[in-house]
Amino acid sequence: MSEKISLKDLEKSVYKISVQDGIIDIQIGAFLLMFAVAPLLSATLGDFWSSVIFLPFWAILFLGLRVVKKRFIQPRIGSIEYGSFRKKRLVRLNLVMLVFNLLALILGFLSFIQFSDLPGWMVTARFSIIMLVGFSLVGYMLEFSRMYIYGIMASSAILIGEYLYQNFQISHHGFPVVFGVMSVALIITGVTIMVRIIIKNPLPGEEQPE
Amino acid sequence: MSDENAIPETVSPLADINQIIHAPARLKILALLYVVTSLDYVFLKNQTELSWGNLATHLKKLEDAGYIRIQKGYQGKKPQSIIQLTAQGRQAFQEYKQALQQVLDDLPD
Asked: ipTM surpassing 0.85, yes or no?
């Protein structure tokens, strides 16, 4: 029995080494940047284009991160292809997130058409819960504990933003401030993890067998 | 000479344990390969903390036994060898696990 548990733990630790390289943190930080910047652009670009404009930005960033992973991280920590257990788990995560995003979209749409009838805090609370549940689901399925903290941070950010808007008239429900701070915090966390990996793991020397 | 009078080659139940796998370094290598589809030299070296020379020696033994497959290639200009467990290696590891469990279970308290 203990043998079974130790192999399970080994698989988990091997998986964690391969994903805890800071890239996910930077990607989420870049994603949340949209919530900070899009409201500021919406006056000039409109709601739709102020969000869509982020797509090429994410594409370039994600491509850049792939290059960083391939050129700087993988030569230092090595690379693995997951076993069938982990692959199935990641497929399940994609399916769960697909269903979750559809539900969130429906809820968002309902909030939009009921906007004038709902009290402001109701829309904020919905959005806050969606963020918390979304991050927690990803954290659970990816076995990535930092994701729970990010979930709490994101859901609190929405509530804090609303508080700032109500009490200090901070524009756009405080989103540029709270999501700006959170986004920068996540990107700094990711970059710090990445730099630490690069410093701690020097490139293998010439003695590496071919 | 009857079978009863035959001198057993060994009385140790550990004799049935697969000695190729039983070496700590090779056991570590096979356990790592057992939980993934494949991995490369660098990952294996970092996890086993073996020197390149030792790692190559153990991998050669496992490859000769037919337990692993090494695909040599390049990532950019740098060599990158991908290592994976063969079906024979997977079966041998499972049998080793069972045999070891059996030996440990049979030990008196």
From this structure: no
